[in-house]
Amino acid sequence: MNHACRTQELVALSGAHTLGSKGFGNPNVFDNAYYKILLDKPWTSSGSMSSMIGLPSDHALVEDDECLRWIKVYAGDQLKFFGDFANAYVNLVDSGAVWGSGEI
Ligand code: HEM
């Protein structure tokens, strides 16, 4: 049983947004670039493409003290991020979350 709190799991799972088109590092590489870039708040610099980085949910994480604490932990410790992401993802699936219709 994993006793991580829900806030920690939210921050760990959100790290999946390092993948894809929202501007957090290499779109094809799963790493902790998401957290390093969140700490820089590039979306606050106006008049450049960096203002396009991230979703509203990504931006909101940095404004919450408890989330920010985990962002700093994962920015500094990629292995901990990998471990916590894996645990949080298993908890998510165990709680009944499914993709789309639930058929694979
Ligand atoms: C905190 C709640 C979340 C919200 C509000 C959210 C919202 C979104 C949205 C709107 C996009 C599309 C971005 C775009 O326009 O390109 C997106 C992309 C994505 N999300 Fe989430 N998401 C959340 C959590 C998660 C979680 C928990 C995971 C997986 C564990 C995840 C994995 C992804 C991935 C991999 C992409 C990129 C897909 C691609 O670019 O092809 N997200 N998310």
Q: Return the CATH class.
A: Mainly Alpha
The CATH homologous superfamily is called Peroxidase, domain 2
Q: Tell me the radius of gyration.
A: 14 Å
- DSSP helix fraction: 40-55%
Look at the structure and give the mean pLDDT: 92
In short:
51% of the residues lie in helices and 0% in strands. The protein has 104 residues and is mostly helical.
Describe the overall structure.
- Keywords: Calcium, Iron, Metal-binding, Oxidoreductase, Peroxidase.
- It is an enzyme of class 1 (oxidoreductase).
- InterPro entries: Ccp1-like, Haem_peroxidase_sf, Peroxidase_I, Peroxidases_heam-ligand_BS.
- GO terms for molecular function: heme binding; L-ascorbate peroxidase activity; metal ion binding.
- With 104 residues, this protein is an all-alpha fold.
- It has a single domain, classed as Peroxidase, domain 2 (Orthogonal Bundle).
- 51% of the residues lie in helices and 0% in strands.
- The protein has helices at residues 6-14, 33-40, 56-62, 65-76, 78-94.
- Helix 1 (6-14) crosses helix 4 (65-76), helix 1 (6-14) packs across helix 5 (78-94) and helix 4 (65-76) packs across helix 5 (78-94).
Write the layout of secondary structure elements.
Blueprint: H1 6-14, H2 33-40, H3 56-62, H4 65-76, H5 78-94
Helix pairs in contact: 1-4, 1-5, 2-4, 4-5
The structure holds protoporphyrin IX containing FE (HEM).
Residues 13-14, 16-17, 19-22, 55, 57, 89 line the site of protoporphyrin IX containing FE (HEM).
What brief labels describe this structure?
mainly alpha; 0% strand; Peroxidase, domain 2; binds protoporphyrin IX containing FE
